[in-house]
Amino acid sequence: MRVFVTGASGWVGSVTVKELVDAGHTVAGLARSEESAAAVEAAGARAVLGSLDDLDLLKAEAASADGTIHTAFNHDFSRFAENCAQDARAIEAMGKALAGSGKPLVVTAGAAIPTTDGLLTEQFAAPAVSERYPRASEQAAFSTLDMDVRAMIVRLPPTTHGKGDKGFMPILINIAREQGFAAYVEGVAAIWPAVHRFDAARVFRLALEKGAAGDRFHAAAEEGIAMQDIAAAIGRGLGLPVRAIAPDEAQAYYGWFSHFARLESRASSEWTRRKLGWEPAHKTLLEDLSERYYFES
Fold first, then answer.
1. Does any domain span residue 129?
2. How many structural domains comprise the chain?
3. Are the beta carbons of 192 and 225 closer than 8 angstroms?
4. 15, 35, 113, 141: which has the highest count of C-beta atoms within 10 A?
């Protein structure tokens, strides 16, 4: 299958490209710079120089491929609403290019979605777009279903971990370094689902190959890890004490990250495992945090 991948040099996109190439697919990967393009080509794919704002380019590449996987997203949280709008425009453009084709369009979304019972399942739809929840990836993808596009969603946990991680775990580690101790918020049942990025890449490939229109998949190897356990692992890794802090101290300790540190987000992947035959094969989050590479920089 000829597959177009956005974010092909990114944290999840790069290993998704490798997963696809190793499975025998021919891949074209979107890259924003010459350096990123070189990394895409080194992985065995054809590099396509451009960005999510190049809508005509996205349309052309999606139309010429047998399937599209969208992993690109700008993670500058100071411009989050703007980045969510850019993401939706890109998804809608690729969807229009695929209209009437029945081709797969696999779109990335987040699994940090609040639910009434605390457990997010694949059957639970994303909340309506709002100022509090501006990301519209799922809505943009599923708006193409009436156009005969085989649109699907892969939800990623707040932490998609592994060696070289530049996401939430390094942020928490750096905060602990600066504050002199690792912390968790007392009285808050903060919990995150997690997945190793190699396991996440396999979900994207299997969704492309096996998924049906309207499917939502959860790339969640672990349903939820308590923030208290994450803080303990960070404390061990840095040789720092671990403390419980009061809710009114969270902003002073975490700064802009305070909201994420108090997330109560569990995600089941039971249906995903049955539908795709997916089983995680790589390290758990706490196993990863026992490795020195998380604490060497």
1. yes
2. 2
3. yes
4. 141
Residue 111 lies in a domain: yes
Q: Copy the structure tokens of residue 285.
A: 């989050």
Q: What is the separation of C-alpha 87 from the centre of its chain, rounded to a whole number of angstroms?
A: 13
In the structure encoding, which two tokens stand for residue 114, read together? 């609040």
* Maximum separation of any 2 CA atoms in the chain, in Å: 58
- Residue 39 within a domain: yes
Residues contacting residue 71 through CB under 8 Å, at least 6 positions apart: 5, 6, 7, 8, 10, 12, 13, 16, 108, 204
Residues 6 or more apart whose CB falls under 8 angstroms from that of 261 comprise: 172, 184, 185, 190, 227, 250, 254
Kindly give the confidence (pLDDT) of every residue in the chain, 297 residues in length, as a single tens digit, with 9 standing for 90 and above. Answer: 999 999 999 999 999 999 999 999 999 999 999 999 999 999 999 999 999 999 999 999 999 999 999 999 987 777 888 989 999 999 999 999 999 999 999 999 998 887 767 899 999 988 887 777 778 899 999 999 999 999 999 999 999 999 999 999 999 999 999 999 999 999 988 999 999 999 999 999 999 999 999 999 999 999 999 999 999 999 999 999 999 999 999 999 999 999 889 988 899 999 999 999 999 999 999 999 999 999 986
Nearest-CA neighbor of 150 among 81, 76, 208? 208
Whether residue 276 lies inside any domain: the answer is no
Per the structure, the complete domain to which residue 249 belongs is given by: 161-193+223-267+282-294
Predicted model pTM = 0.95
Whether the Cβ atoms of residue 105 and residue 83 lie closer than 8 Å to each other = no
- Could you tell me if 265 and 114 are in contact, meaning their C-beta atoms sit under 8 angstroms apart? yes
